[in-house]
## 1
Amino acid sequence: MGLDFPALLGDLAWETDRLTETLAGLNEPQWEQPTPAAGWAVRDQVSHLAYFDDCAVLALADPTLFEIDAARLVARGDDFPDLVAADNREMPVAELVDWFTTSRRHLLTAFAEQDPRRRLPWFGPPMSVASSVTARLMETWAHGRDIYDTIGATQPIGRGLRSICHLGVSTFGFSHALRGLDVPRTPVRVELTAPDAGATWSWGPDDATDRITGPAEDFALVVTQRRHPLDTALTITGPVARSWTAIAQAFAGAPGPGRPPTGGRS
């Protein structure tokens, strides 16, 4: 399936609107509630999105300056996302909301003016503009999920879920290399049940013996490290598929710790 860049931007805008609507309904104590991400409150999830939106805008506008700023941030340590959260933890909620909504608006405008094939620097390997949009979509969905889980709300599922799953499959090699592991040559077949009744999304050879099947939402939760595989309805067959789901990481940065199982399937 070819790239539909306007549709991809529309998916990011849709995800943004749903999250913004949710944030508008929060009271002050809810902004301080701890989320499933250890040490992070709801406010930290939002400041993370705003900060890295600004980074993406800078990468688009001035790649050289971005690389200087990124190197300075990474030099603070592998826990630099936690440090960004701490740096902005005292920001008043109204100011934080304005930061996120303004940064996201600027980001969407900047993306719309770009050639989707243009290469950009980032905190991991360089990526295309289209991949950068997908990454911001994934981040919005994943950090949004932590917020929805915290306030006991159901996360709306839009068509951008397929792009998030595709990113999860595409980062197979990255997930291994990030941990200094050889990238397995054994292919993995991924067959996911889409939210639309009767639809299936698939990647990898039909005859692969290593396989991952199940709900698309569950796969997205695993590759964004929002759920342990045992807490999903995924069926994971084969040693490579099992080892991959244990380390799958669709986001840049240091290896993520993942989430411990909460007592789901054994």
## 2
Amino acid sequence: MPASAQDQPTVRINEVESNDGSPGDWIELVNTGTAAVDVSGWVVKDNDNSHSYKISSGRSLAAGAFLALDVDPSFGLGSSDSARLFQAGGSTLVDSYTWTDHATTTYGRCADGTGAFITTTASTKGAANACGGGGGEPPADTTWPGGAAITIADGSNVFGTNLSGLSFENAGVLWAVRNGPGKLYRLVPNGTTWRPDPAGGWASGKALHYAGGSGDPDAEGVVVTPDGLFVATERDNGNDSTSMPKILRFDASSTASSLNATAEWNLTSDLPSVAANAGPEGISWIPDTFLTAHGFRDERTGAAYNPATYPGHGSGLFFAGVEANGTVYVYALNQSGGGYTRIATITSGFPGVMDLEFEPATGHLWAVCDDTCQGRTSTLDINAQGKFAVTRTYDRPSGMADYNNEGFAIAPQTACTAGHKPVIWSDDTNDGGHALRAGTLNCTP
């Protein structure tokens, strides 16, 4: 669901100096918006809540301006640490970045304010980042790896606004969720477009509720897994000023006219405090077989991920992307409901994550940003240290306008034709009376 300007501040962490800075460690902010932002009383912390730096009163950050904060002597930044930015009061997280070793220069976003954090080629305190080659950074933004053409993929005003996450079950079934009111749609092909399945009571979608039939979950992301269909939610629309980040499981085979969650996982105690409409936006799932084969590291144990450590968690792990900070949180969910364990935390390279998609054919975890990042996507892959890291960042297809796309789904490899397979985006704003658009992705990397 589109957030207000208050829900989505335009101030971001832009550069971090954690070692040998002048006069000491510092954290640089940038205002990516078009209007000045009052940052009086905003707070910067490291990974320890007992250490903080408060911005003085009367401080405003002009559009496009940089602000370097000398956090020494309030606290120092370690070789394995975090920089976290909070609004005044110190409880609402705006942005964060985590690293595991000092940079040889600094860590900075490329492009400023919106791109992934990389090792810069030089420290540029209070100025635009040095993003030239030689810093060990991921490749710069590249052309979309598929067709440039985009086609409308739904009928006129079928869904209206608020269509969000997408997930293919197979080449002939696409699931979608609407965030207000919370609904689940089973979509099937209709010529060259997709429509709600006219059979099984799906013609208008099915309303979603929490376990027991209460509430109206703000359904933002959906993923189909061998363990069931799961939905990421930010809040109850009936109390939309209060954050309530949950993952819900639903029985998609039910013939009921509305669906009650069959299990719930409340992530409130594990996630940072964020605005009510800036919580979990995207969700994906990766099988244990892939994770173990590629040496995925369990950050809780500090060793290679071992599925046997988490009995009852099903056959894979869940990846939840948060809108407020662009961070992906990885969980083992006890399938009886309620219990969960965080396995890892991943930086997406974007200020906010709107959807996540695992592509089995390539092993990529795709992270999707909306018009906040000009419709860019990034791929993350498991590196030599067993962590997901950004390997590519792609511009949106040249044939697609800068829509508020909150959903992204890649058709299975079986759908490949002439070297391309379909991809679908969902536009929360329903621009031009259409919420779904289709393009193509190369079947081979």
## 3
Amino acid sequence: MKRVSGLDIPQTLAEACDPQRLALVVYDMQVGILRQIKNPEEVVSRVSRVLEAARAAGVRIFFMRHMSLPKELMGTFAYRMAMAWQRVDDPNEVKPWFLRDTPGFAITPELAPRPSEAIFDKLTMSALEGTPLEIALRDCGITTLALVGVAMEIGIEPTARHAADLGIIPVIVADACGAGHAEAAQRSIESLKFAGDAIFTDTDEFCRTLQRMPA
């Protein structure tokens, strides 16, 4: 571990992933979102492995869910975004896809959150914007945030950037992050690597790292 001015400066995955200072965010692993990607079973399997390793290591775990507002509560930007995603030109044709308590809103049952794990709903792409997540992380003294889920190019990248701006090290378990558009996801990965804020890993390495941590 590098040190300066009395501070530890993590450089490696193992140095960053102290289970007492690490949290795992499972991003938008919802039934209706998984239907929109090409390899949902593969992503669910890898996220499940990461989740199991994090639970075994005592890592704090937060699930995020993307929520649609009913049309009566949607504003200008909500309509613009929905029109772009749904590829319609008329706002009257917009259909809220992720209304609370609809089947598509639910977290996929393979990853059922435990009572000891939080579920936060959001309207935004960053998991840290407009949700209680930042407050919870700060209150627990979290310094590293591991990210898995869907989608790399839509939510994982902005969450990683937001975490870095808050002084939290983002760890991206890349093969446990699904994508709606493979080329866009690759651009997100390359951009994050260029910025240098995030630590990139894969499911095997992340799980091994947690398993090697002292109990």
